[in-house]
Amino acid sequence: MPFSFSLTSRPWPALLTGTVLAASLAACGDTAILSPEQGMGKSPTLPAPNQSLIPTLHIAPAKGWPEGSMPTASLPGLSVTPLATGLDHPRWVLVLPNGDVLVAESQAPPKGEGAPSGGVLGAIKGWVMKTVMGKAGSGKRPSANRITLLRDADGDGRAETQSVFLQNLNSPFGMALVGNELYVANADAVVRFPYEAGQTSITAPGTKLVDLPGGPINHHWTKNLIASADGSKLYVTVGSNSNVGENGMQAEEGRAAIWEVGRASGSHRIFASGLRNPNGLGWAPGTGALWTVVNERDEIGSDLVPDYLTSVKDGTFYGWPYSYYGQHVDERVQPPRPDLVAKAVSPDYALGSHVAPLGMAFSQGPALAPQLASGAFVGEHGSWNRKPRSGYKVVFVPFVDGQPSGLPIDVLAGFVSPDGDAYGRPVGVAVDARGGLLVADDVGNAVWRVGAAAPR
Predict the structure, then answer these.
(1) Phi and psi (nearest 5°) for 16?
(2) How sure is the predictor about 52, in pLDDT bands with cuts at 50, 70 and 90?
(3) Is the dihedral of CA 424, 425, 427, 430 positive or negative?
(4) How many whole angstroms separate alpha carbon 273 and alpha carbon 294?
(5) How confident is the model at residue 456 (pLDDT cuts 50, 70, 90)?
(6) Cβ-count burial of 17 within 10 angstroms (0-12 exposed, 13-18 middle, 19+ buried)?
């Protein structure tokens, strides 16, 4: 669909209402020609890029769950219960050794002054994206900036205790417990708090371990972390500050990477780079390898680029922004860096284009179902840059001999209504103390528990 506009001395949003403009631009863009499965697995199909001035905008508007409704298990023998409802944009979950569950309730931090606009076209695109993405439920209100504790004492899949555990944080996301210390990844720093088993709140002040790249842009603000097996190190995800470096590579210092941080000293280094927006982290059972899920780049077509699940090796470069899926050069990035493209490695496994994987957790045996005994659960937040939509569900990637094998298996679905509205959007996933799968739903404001159905 062609799109044109004229610039006058009047502010351009006054020329067209936001609703009309957003609707007009949402009609632009391409439609996928590949099936979702063709963009999945170890060898996904990668068509030619399809770049346009205005990208495809096709979001499921956030509505929330109708009373009495919830997502549905996609496999027979599974049940779904609401562990907790009435939360405020829950994003991440951490299961403590005593079975308590911590939930980070968080939204994006305010953008600081000095964030670049990218010129007139950049300002237009930014305004449109903010308008349209707001429909997806992001940034509608200030961040709760807290962590809530959920306790299911009787084991029925519903928390009897739901109380504030930690507050006055800065857009918290990832959490990790090492011994008697709780680490929280804020949008701009990793902070450490004292913790005692069974306590229901922390009032002690936190201690900053290390600063993380933050404002004024902080495009991918979600920071996650995981501790090494011996607890001596933390591995921290830091997403990029742009889609493909359009804010300048100086704004990407220390970003699009996984950091290795010394837990005692806060000393840090780049462990792996070229990862546009890594989020979920996990240690693979058996091999002990570090794995992550990554949101790849947008705006070159509904069929590009597949988001992915990959093992992460020390010192490895994964391409962003100069290339994708190994050494496929992104011509939008100037100046090019053929030296870095030559070093770029391909990820292990494609999850599909624009599914937006955020949560990732390895299974811990056949407690849910035999086919879910070995592999990784992935929370797919859902697409905005693909028509038709992709993601908006939780899938399971089977592993054989320590590697992904076969296509993903749907585990939890029903997040989008028949009319295309989002009842919910899955984010963080975790396996609880009884082998159930917990799913944070930031649009549905709930944490769902998927468990084995009781025998009849």
Answers:
(1) -135, 140
(2) confident
(3) positive
(4) 12
(5) very low
(6) exposed
Query: ∠ CA(404), CA(225), CA(278), 5° rounding?
Result: 50
d(CA 446, CA 35): 31
432: burial class by Cβ within 10 Å (0-12, 13-18, 19+)? Answer: buried
Tokens linked to 383: 């697409």
Note if the bond before 216 is cis, omega within 30 degrees.
yes
- Give SS3 for 66: coil
pLDDT band at 122 (very low <50, low <70, confident <90, very high): low
- pLDDT for 118 equals 54
State pLDDT tens for residues 63-92: 999 999 999 999 999 999 999 999 999 999
- Residue 442 C-alpha from the chain's centroid: 11
Report the percent of the chain where pLDDT is more than 90. Answer: 85
Secondary structure of residue 191 in the 3-state scheme: strand
| Domains of the chain, first to last | 12-452 (2.120.10.30)
Partners of 162 in beta bridges = 150
Separation in Å, CA 163 to CA 47, 103, 256: 49, 10, 34
CB 196 within 8 A of CB 179: no
Angle between helices 119-134 and 18-26 (to 10 degrees): 90
For the stretch 328-361, pLDDT in tens is 999 999 999 999 999 999 999 999 999 999 999 9
**CA 436, CA 374: separation in Å to the nearest integer?**
14
Q: Which residues contact 123 (CB under 8 A, 6 or more apart)?
A: 117
Ramachandran assignment for 381, one of left (phi > 0), alpha (psi -120 to 50 degrees), beta (any other): alpha
Asked whether the predicted pLDDT for residue 236 surpasses 70, the reply is yes
- Check if the beta carbon of residue 431 is closer than 8 Å to that of residue 411: no
Report the pLDDT value the prediction gives residue 3, as an integer from 0 to 100. 35
- If one counts every other C-beta atom within 10 angstroms of the C-beta of residue 349, the result is 25
User: Residue 111 has what pLDDT?
Assistant: 79
Pairing between β-strand 161-166 and β-strand 146-151 as defined by DSSP bridges? antiparallel
Of 300, 283, 257, residue with least CA distance to 399: 283
Report how far residue 219's alpha carbon sits from residue 346's, in angstroms, rounded to the nearest whole number: 24
Q: Is 0.70 topped by the overall pTM?
A: yes
What pLDDT sits at residue 352?
Answer: 98
